[in-house]
Structures are given as structure tokens and as C-alpha cells.
Write a structure and sequence with these properties.
The protein contains 10 helices and 11 strands. By secondary structure, it is of the alpha+beta class. It folds into 2 domains: about 20-120, Phosphorylase Kinase, domain 1 (2-Layer Sandwich); about 125-345, Aminoglycoside phosphotransferase (APH), C-terminal lobe (Aminoglycoside 3'-phosphotransferase, Chain: A, domain 2, Alpha-Beta Complex). The strands form 3 sheets. Strands 1, 2, 3, 4, 5 and 6 form a 6-stranded antiparallel beta sheet that branches. It is globular, with a radius of gyration of 20 Å.
């Protein structure tokens, strides 16, 4: 059949997510991985995840990848998880369960005729950071955990590490055309301004920074906590090879949105990271731009995807209004005081 009659999505964010039932998930778990348990569907952006509980009390997550995802990218994510488990076994990340023949993946045909790659991962208990009240100590812990994950990935590479990913800050030019989906003109103009600034002023500089594979999504939905401790990080679906400093933009952009002083929150997260892997002065100088761009990306991607995926609109648009208000506040505030605060948090003079 020609591509005209059977168009292929250009991005996993455009393809429909898997839509297996809990009964089908239970069959996949049993046949593919030998896990017999009761399945419960979990919320996700573009893949489908099921929480499985066995009679023996074991807990697993069955992850069904979006069929538009390049198998090489799935392999990239899989190899990264295996690498981290070898390099730093104390890091609390999901661990892969292999099939009876020793493979970390199992392929199945879906009810719509598409082919799906599935993986079985250990379930990490804990409270989502999104549902916790962050303390200064917890904010530092989030920063430190982000750095430890990046440290464990140092030296790891894969041929698919530079794949197309619209959540990659260095791929913002791919998002420019999608700002038209932002209905409010003032919102759209601000997002376009932030994107233009990053492309013209920041990306040329980032090309000279240290780079490696990073998690790229240590977010409030992917971080598990217990009190002031981080107990785990999940969802390695946004892994990418990028400048190392880009990794800190995700937790900072999300954790400054909560009520309180955004500068103090950013300082705590950055200080925690810096205590594990010190930032360079040049890296600290661009954190403000990366954070504002991440907020703008969330607004643009949510507006674009909401129209294409009405079945998942609640998940896609969660927090958009808060992100817009914080973006507006930061842009009006300007980078100087933000930058000075980060330098102070890292034990450096306020100006350089």
C-alpha cells in the first residue's frame, strides 16, 4: 500500500498511544515474561504502562512502547537501563525482567494490527514528587539524584542516542512551526520569543559544552520520594544525547512553579546537582534560558497535542496554566538575579 493511502506519523507524539485492555496486558505479561498478576493501567504520554501485582506480592510494570517509536530508540533506552544497573547498582531505577529466552523485550501484535515492543520492569514504590510538598532538603536531593543519574550514564553511547525528540532542548527549531496551535496570541508571541532567543543566542554556545546521554526527564511525575528523600526515578523514554546542563532544566522548570520563591527553589535544586557534579560558570549562565525554554516547550507541545489526542487531554494539558504564569514571570524578571542566585548556591561570587 502506498504511503499516500497509509500515512506514517512523523513523530511518536503524533501517533496514537497503545490501547490494550488490562486483560490483554495480563496475557502479555504471562506469555512474554512468565508474570502472572492483576493489571492496572497507569497514565502515560505516548506509551502504555500497566502496574501488575502477583499473588506472591511481587510488583511489576509492563511497558508497551508506542508503535511509531523506532525499535533502535527502544533498544537505546533498554541498553541505558542495563548500563546504569551495572555501573551504579545503588541507584533506584527500574530493573528489566528478561523473557524465558533471555531477551529484555517481547513483541506482540495489537488489536489494531500494529506491532508493539513490550518490556517488563520492576515496580518502584513511593510517592510521586508531584504529590509531595518539596522542602529545601528534598529539592537538593532531586538535584543530586539528577546528577548521579547523569554520572552513571557518562561514557555510555548508542547509535540512536541522537534521535528526533521534541522534548530535547537542542531540537527546539522543530517546534517553531507548532507554536501556531497556541490559541492565545500573547502566549504564542512569548513562546516564539523564548524559542527565537534560544536558537539565536544559546544553541551556538551549547555546541561547545560537555555533552553525553542524559535522562532528560527527572520531572515531578517521574520522581519518587519519601519525606526528604528521593527513592527512585522512573520513565527513561526521553533519554537523549545532549549538553549535560540541559538535564537540570527539567526539575528546575517544574519545581519553581509551586507557590513560593522560584529563585530559592531553583537554587536548592542546582546546589544539589553541583554538590555531585560541579557546573562550570558558562553552564550556569545558560540555566535561565534553558528553564524558560522548557516552560515554553511544555506550553507549545501541550497545545499541539491536545487537539490530536482528546482522549488524553487531561494528562497532556496538566499544569499548562501554571507554566504560562511562571514563564511570564521569569521573562519579566530577567536572567540577572536568577543567575546570581544560582552562582551563590554553588558557592561562587554573585557576578563574574
Amino acid at each position: 500500500m502506498s504511503s499516500t493511502n497509509n500515512p506514517q506519523p512523523t513523530s511518536v507524539l503524533e501517533a496514537k498511544a497503545p490501547a490494550f485492555t488490562t486483560a490483554e496486558a495480563e496475557r502479555i505479561a504471562k506469555r512474554g515474561f512468565g508474570v502472572v498478576g492483576e493489571a492496572e493501567c497507569l497514565r502515560s504520554e505516548r506509551d502504555q504502562n500497566f502496574h501488575l501485582r502477583t499473588r506472591e506480592g511481587r510488583e511489576w510494570v509492563l511497558r508497551i512502547s508506542n508503535p511509531a517509536e523506532d525499535p533502535a530508540v527502544v533498544d537505546f533506552q533498554t541498553r541505558a537501563l542495563l548500563h546504569i544497573a551495572r555501573v551504579d547498582p545503588e541507584l533506584a531505577i527500574p530493573h528489566l525482567l528478561t523473557t524465558p529466552d533471555g531477551s529484555p523485550t517481547h513483541e506482540v501484535d495489537g488489536p489494531d494490527g500494529r506491532r508493539f515492543i513490550t518490556r517488563m520492569l520492576s515496580f518502584l514504590p513511593g510517592k510521586l514528587l508531584n504529590d509531595a510538598q518539596p522542602t529545601p532538603q528534598l529539592l537538593r536531593e532531586v538535584g543530586a539524584t539528577t546528577a548521579k543519574l547523569a554520572r552513571s550514564l557518562r561514557g555510555f553511547f548508542h547509535p540512536a542516542a541522537r534521535h528526533e525528540l521534541l522534548w530535547d532542548l537542542t531540537q527546539v527549531p522543530l517546534l517553531q512551526a507548532r507554536t501556531r496551535h497556541i490559541e492565545e496570541p500573547a502566549h504564542r508571541r512569548l513562546v516564539e520569543h523564548v524559542f527565537d532567543h534560544l536558537i539565536e543566542q544559546v544553541l551556538p554556545v551549547l555546541g561547545g559544552f560537555r555533552a553525553q546521554v542524559i535522562h532528560n526527564d527527572v520531572s515531578c511525575q517521574n520522581t519518587l520520594v519519601d519525606g526528604d528523600r528521593v527513592t527512585g526515578v522512573i520513565d527513561f523514554g526521553d533519554l537523549i544525547h545532549a549538553p549535560l546542563v540541559c538535564d537540570i532544566a527539567v526539575p528546575v522548570s517544574e519545581l519553581i512553579v509551586d507557590p513560593g520563591d522560584p529563585i530559592e527553589a531553583a537554587m536548592a535544586v542546582v546546589a544539589g546537582y553541583h554538590g555531585v557534579t560541579p557546573f562550570t560558570a558558562d553552564e550556569l549562565r545558560v540555566v535561565f534560558d534553558l528553564v524558560t525554554t522548557r516552560l515554553a516547550m511544555m506550553i507549545a507541545i501541550s497545545a499541539w497535542r491536545a487537539g490530536d489526542h482528546p482522549e488524553n487531554i487531561e494528562y497532556i494539558t496538566a499544569g499548562v496554566e501554571e507554566n504560562w504564569l511562571m514563564l511570564e514571570r521569569l521573562v519579566e524578571f530577567g536572567p540577572d538575579f536568577f543567575h546570581a542566585g544560582l552562582r551563590h548556591a554553588c558557592g561562587l561570587p554573585a557576578s563574574a
